[in-house]
Amino acid sequence: MLEGTKINTPSQMSSIFDIAKDTVLFLVLSCYYILESLFWTLVPNALRPMKSLNGDIVLITGGGGGVGRQLAIKLARLGAKVVLWDVNKEALNKTCAALKDEGYTVASYVVDLADREAVYKTAQRVKIEVGKVDILINNAGVVFGETLLDLNDAAIETTYKVNILSHYWTVKAFLPDMISSGKGHIVTMGSVAGLLGTYRCTDYSGTKFATVGFHESLFTELRTHGHNTIHATLVCPYYINTGMFDGVTPRLMPMLEPDYVAETMIDSIRKNEVNCIMPGSVRYLLPLKCLLPAKMCWDLMHRVMKGPQSMMELKRKTAVE
After folding, report:
1. How many CA atoms lie within 13 A of 51 on its CB side?
2. DSSP letters of 156-225?
3. Degrees, nearest 5: CA angle 187-136-235
4. Which of 108, 121, 118 is nearest to 82 (CA)?
5. How many Å apart are CA 188 and CA 139, to the nearest integer?
6. What is the mean predicted confidence (pLDDT) over 119-133?
7. What is the pLDDT at residue 36?
């Protein structure tokens, strides 16, 4: 499906002239890209062109609470047709009730993202009962908060099935229709923990690093094969105050609120942004782990940021047997 557009590969090594030409072109375009980025960074959202979501079918995994619930409410207010997936029926009903109280219709499905066949079957139901999904938001995630030797195998497998493997199943289910229609948007919920390893998160950080790699690779496939109208946005937020990280007390900056995260995500979607890191200041700190000596990075994390110490207070989740 992705290989509908053929890639012309040279039969022999590119000449020095071609390399020089492409390098000069890259440098010229880079100046334009940097200026363009600076311009749009300084322009308020109220003055920026933002795509309309009115009438779009938006599927949100993990829509029963937290960021998922806020996304559902805000997207419905923008005219989107919201489809919610969650394993927690009670939480799902609460979100649906909140939407219906405001006069919006919503489709909801109880589905265990750890079950591949259940994902595929529910995806088929959505296509028949609701229609083609225009925007897929892979938001669901779990964390157990144990050190590696305290994590049981079932918990590790569950984290990987929900946090990353489910992305493969949902994207494989809905991307072909997006390509056929020439319209679509895939939103991947990563994490700052997927850019920087975190204490007591060998499973969670591992899956979030995987979501970043999955998303960036998918982006290259879409662009390489000319599917430029299928957009992809990678979201990497700091700790969010949803209950997943109860007990954690970050030292340098407070947790993000779900309302702020959802609002920022929607703005990024409407602007077709490729990356959405929250808060924005974090993007300037991340390169330091590659630029600074390893001992210096550890001292910054342990002594100044108190990252491991704050995670020691994380309340343990129910174990999976």
Report:
1. 18
2. HHHHHIIIIIHHHHHHHHHHHHHHHHT-EEEEEE--GGGTS--TT-HHHHHHHHHHHHHHHHHHHHHHHT
3. 15
4. 108
5. 7
6. 98
7. 80
pTM above 0.85, yes or no: yes
Sign, CA dihedral 258-259-264-269, equals positive
CA distance 110 to 92: 8
Q: How far apart are CA 225 and CA 228, in angstroms?
A: 8
DSSP one-letter code for 301:
I
Is residue 117 within 8 Å of 138, Cβ to Cβ?
no
* pLDDT value of residue 320: 45
- Residue 321 is predicted with a pLDDT of 35
Mean pLDDT of the chain: 90
- The reply to whether 204 belongs to the active site is yes
Active-site position among 104, 204, 238, 239? 204
Residue with tokens 């938006």: 58
